[in-house]
Known about the structure:
- Chain A is mainly alpha-helical and 449 residues long.
- Chain A is 77% helix and 0% strand.
- Chain A has 19 helices and no strands.
- The two termini of chain A are 21 Å apart.
- By secondary structure, chain B is mostly helical.
- Helices cover 68% and strands 0% of the residues of chain B.
- Classes of the chains: A mainly alpha (449), B mainly alpha (541).
- At the A-B interface, α1, α2, α12 and α14 of A face α6, α10, α16, α17 and α19 of B.
Amino acid sequence: MVLRLVILGAVLGLMQAARSFAPADHGAAQAGAGTLAFGFVLLAAFFTGRSFKSLGLPRLTGYIAIGMAVGPAVLGLLTPAMVVDLKLFNGVAISLIALTAGSELDFRAIRPLLRTIGWITVIAVFGTTLLLTGVVYALRAHVPFMADLALVPALAVAALLGVTTVAQSPAVVVALRDETESEGPVSQTVLGVVVLADLVVIVLFAIASAAAKSVLGGDADVVRTLRELGWELFGSLGIGVVVGVVIAIYLRQVAGNAALFLLAVSIGVAEIGSRVHLDPLLVALAAGIVLRNLTELGERVLHEIEGASLPVYAVFFAVAGATIHLDVLPLVWIPALAIVGTRAFGLLVGTRIAARVAGAPPEVGRFAGFGLLPQAGLALALAMLFARTFPSFGEGAGALTLGVVAINEVVAPVFFRIALLRSGEAGRRRARDLSLSGGEPSPLEAPGR
Amino acid sequence: MRDLLPWRVLRLASAIAACLCLIAATSLVRAQDPGQTPDAAAPVDATAASAAAAPDASSAVSDAALDGGWSDAGVLDGSAPLAALAQPAPPTFAPPDAGSATSAAPTTQLRDARVPQPAPSPAPGTTEAASSVVKTILGLLVLLGLAVLGAHPRVRRLESALGISQVVTAGFPFVALGLVARAPSVGLFDDRVLAQIAPLLQLGLGWVGFLTGYQFEVRALDDFPKGTAAFVGAMTSLPFALVVAACGGLLLAFGQPWQDAVFLRDGIVLGSAATITAPIAASIARERGVAPGTQAVLTRLGLLDDIAGIVGLLFLGAFFRPATADVAWALPGTAWLFVTIGLGFSVGVVVYLVLRRPATNVEQVALVVGCVAFAAGLAGVLRLSPVVVCFLAGLLVGNLPGDYRPGVRKVLRLLERPIYLVFLVFAGALWNVGDWRGWALVPVFVLARLGGRALGVRAAERTGGASELAHGRAGIVPAPMGALSIAIVISFQTLFAGRAVPWIVTAVIGGAIVTEFVVQIGLLGGRAQRPRVAALPPGAG
């Protein structure tokens, strides 16, 4: 622990020295700055994650915490330009995470849980959206940009905020499942729900956004909205199937350098997909589902991705931390805390009710709700989209949604990790792998020396 | 074997012809592009952008250049960045130990625009913006695809079957692809795209430096036979001197003023690149039937002369730093020398502490990549050479005690080829092949280097200190240049500007390719004749 802190201190010190050389974001040093930011974030996140793990906290909370600490809002070791440079990782990370999630979604295995997943999505996710809408509406006197709105516009904006703040994080779920090596009904159910909820939230946001535009006197075009939504959902899934087939052909015909190939595919999906208004998460998710359910290559894909997952997760979550606007929290802390509390209450209670209705195993009702609490990429994207779509609400709306995401991003993974440990699912995957390999650790887990 | 010879010669000749055709085609494409003349190698986008941004400054620069007021180019070749174009002040270089000249001098940023420079971003939502994004993505995908392809075992087997498995010729298709992708008519790697994916170049330079330093075993020096130091000294100083003299003469003929510190700088980088021997010298010796002991010595010699190249680059980075206004540290050259060495070893200590901790294979890959990126990035931000800083870090890490070394070596080897091939594509993209003066330097550079090495062996034999090493002459004299030579010259290109910079890059990359083809042809003859060389006396290797 002491040595880890010494290393962390040395890395921070060297970074500070480098930053003192060229204090401004100057173009001449930009090439070096991008490389430096990547190496610095990777090392700092790795050692902070390890330190957090030894304290019984999730590694990814460590990644997020160090990102916040060194980001522009606190120490400023990472400049805004460096954070932008590192955002290339976001798309790649989301694609890889979605590919992992899809490759883990074995429909044969989760068939018994489909009913539970459906009920949790309806009761917990959809129900919490309605609850949040009501709470935001009730709190409108404390929300500066809503105080002067009439009933209907206030309801429309409240609904939009409800959808924006209910979003979950498949990335955190997949990362924590990997970190704790969990396997069982709780983690399977959570994964299924967050993936399904991702689709639901995208649809709800599009509908609520169009409705809010219409109510607020904007030029909402329902047909266009539906067309764009259809393209984003079904286009993404269709392209995802094609990508899955391409990966399958490569793995069968070429086989070599599969990890690099998957990385290249992830970059393509993330960057090209978002430019043509496809959802990279859905594209990669569909590809993963194809590989898992229509081929025998699902395990292999997971194995190949595992090698790249550590740096990708570390950089992705650290950048997410660096992106958090801590400075806005003092401005919106009352409504933000109310929304965070309501959201947690709705998701936890809703999951318990849904699990009982669906006749799920008792541990699903007790623990699965905690997996729905974390927020990261999608919620941040929706928060920023919300602020961009309705600029008339000013910085206040962005501050509120970003504040909610910030709290959930930092705190919620801790609860989900505890839930996985308490449910007894943590470590099951490792135990299964060890039993299959006769006690030998996998090559990736083997000591590197 | 004799029956096979014509077929192998034919294959080699076709490979050479194909390479030359590629270069010629690229040169033709560039020459036909109205935005590019031999003396105005700036890409169309940058030229247009600069003209749009500061037309007055642009014309002022042209006038100044025509008046001969710019002794140092980077302006004359149109390769100065937009910032420099906007501030037509005389360029200044800190001469050796010039005290605080760096801080006192008028500040003009002297960098070569062939190095990835961030061009102004187009307005979001425009066709140009979309095109730039798509190009960047395609560029990244091409790089990754090439890395995957180049590292594929089948490709490596094919290279081996074709007899081109040496370091530069095997990578030459990647250099050529970089050239083609950079051509304005293809337009895949324009300035903006290169600027966006430039961190990969820094990482590649750092990787080459770290790997070279890591492989340098200080303990192995004790096993070297007596006289090795004199031998290596002769083998590095004579090629260095001969290349500096010969190429310097040609540079003078091309109008480079000898009074300018830039002239000395250009000579040093050419000489430094010429001193380096590819580690494959030993395998060449094996092909020629040289005794195994000599092969081992040659392998270690291949590592020893890397030091000369690194030292050259170290001095260049310290004493010839371009003066810039946008930095907070204003130090004399000697201080920069110590900063570079101190930074290299400081990073080395941190990397050592990082890597000696227990880690799984996955963690070790992440840590090694993170360490090299961190070291290379630190160097890049401080405007030092990533090759030098990472070499020093690798040297320390590779020679300190610890059981992490086999694992780290495995990771370095695992990623070496993909990173190196990506680096070569960059080298191709940054290479300006359209200037004939660079090509004129190639034969001079190659012949001077070979002559210097031949003289070096003779000098070592005369002193008698390393007579047993002279058995390896067959491998030593025509030994190809290593990857480090290319890294040095690319690193040089990222740090400095000047009219002669593109010529130097052409001389070194072209020289490396020509040398390797010469070696290959020599090998064919060697295989046909199968000479037998006597084994070395005991203790020689």
